[in-house]
Amino acid sequence: MATEDQIVNYIKSLPEQQWYSLEDIGKGMNIPYSEIQRLVTESEAFVTSIGDKNETVITLRATFRKNEPVYRKIIGAFKNRID
Questions:
Q1: CA-CA to 3 of 20 to 30 Å: which in 23, 33, 60, 76?
Q2: Beta-strand relationship, 56-60 and 46-50
């Protein structure tokens, strides 16, 4: 069973990019998609979004804060709001 720290360390070991697909992380770590999804959902260490191919993508919260443009943060906040 994977842990949040293992996912964080795996992402840090990859070539730097803004977003990583859950599917690619699961394949790279040899962990079922459902387990990756559960860990990411339960953790505050990650930010999730929807990628260009309509797949779930994640990034580390620290990376998001550092690299994501302000306007995208605002749009993301509206997309994820609860009515």
A1: 76
A2: antiparallel
β-bridge pairing 46-50 and 20-21: unpaired
Tell me, letter by letter, the H, E, C secondary structure of the chain.
CCCHHHHHHHHHHCCCCCCEEHHHHHHHHCCCHHHHHHHHHHCCCEEEEECCCCCEEEEEHHHHHHHCCHHHHHHHHHHCCCC
Cα gap 34→26, rounded to integer Å: 9
Fold of 4-79: Arc Repressor Mutant, subunit A (1.10.10)
The tokens describing 12, both together, are: 């840090």
Per-residue pLDDT reduced to its tens digit, 43-60:
989 988 888 888 999 999
